[in-house]
Amino acid sequence: MLSRHDKINFIKKYKIILFSLLFLTNTAFGQETTISIENGTATVNRIAEFNRPWAILELEPNRFLVNERGGNLFILQANGEKTQVELGELEHEIYARGQGGFLGLAKHPEYNENGWVYMSYSGLANSSNASTILIRFKINNNQMQDIETLFVSDPGSTTRHFGSRIVFDNDGYVYLGLGDRGNRPLAQELSSHLGSLIRLNDDGSIPSDNPFMDNNQRREIYSYGHRNIQGLFYDSENDAIYAHEHGPRGGDEVNLIKRGVNYGWPEATYGIGYSGFRISDNQTLEGTEDPLFYWDPSIAPSGFTIYSGKLFEPWKGSFLVGALKFGVISRLIWDSNNTKLIEEERILDGEYGRIRDVYEDSNGYIYFLTDLSNGAVYRLTPEN
Question: How much is the pTM?
């Protein structure tokens, strides 16, 4: 007979095995599950598995580029077929540790003509310090070719908060979101790239009308006072850039980006330190811009789209923000006066894990990525 101790261990092992089988059953590739949303139901389809995917980018209809934080690139078809892209030689060694690795993805507005893909990653600027680096490249025959380094953030560090998402505006400028690298005061220093939004020409040169062009300022900076930008979206219809960023405990923010504006971190924040200490006495501060919206408690936002398609008609104009902390997609809408954002609903309920990216394709489907070693790309479709 089994001893009481052996029985307890047997039960524990049985529960672990049972949970694993249920997890695999519920997340099998191609299998569809149904979730409730405010205006009905939607189908979630698990498209393909990845190891900590960070970003997804539609290259052409039903053909995507997906990167893994550890330093891999894949072509993904909408039917789940994936092909690994052979990497070219990067000028800086990838720093795939902690929050670092392959990060944001974007394509040139004239991608169909020139084939340029843009990616940010954390790389070693010297033997010990890592920076957020922006490159562009082309993909031919599933190979990464014609790699150009466009920007390297300075100063480097060995710690966290790399950012980093990428968008283009209607004029062809490229924007790159950066984090403060854990060095809070530098987010207020224009002599440092840290904690800022960078604006460049598409070839990496500096636009002549950037706001900070003095000799002691980093000319690439477009706005500053950011903690860690993890979502960036350009609303081409209204010519507006929105960013969301991680706060400390409480105080994750959504901001409307304005030229040359200070967004306050760490001099003004709605959050507190993780151990409970007060970072600043100011939630708002003269000379800094208040957020359009903030989450308290924090959701650790990641990934960002403003829905414009027809499949989810009630969501048109909604801000869809992934959450690492609760495994939800936070849907934000404008209030009746169109002056501030309010949270309308939370989609999903943590059952898929940490949401790293949220993306709308040209057909109006919503894709989301889960930040797990057995993470995946999922597609969200409304049910009729």
Answer: 0.91
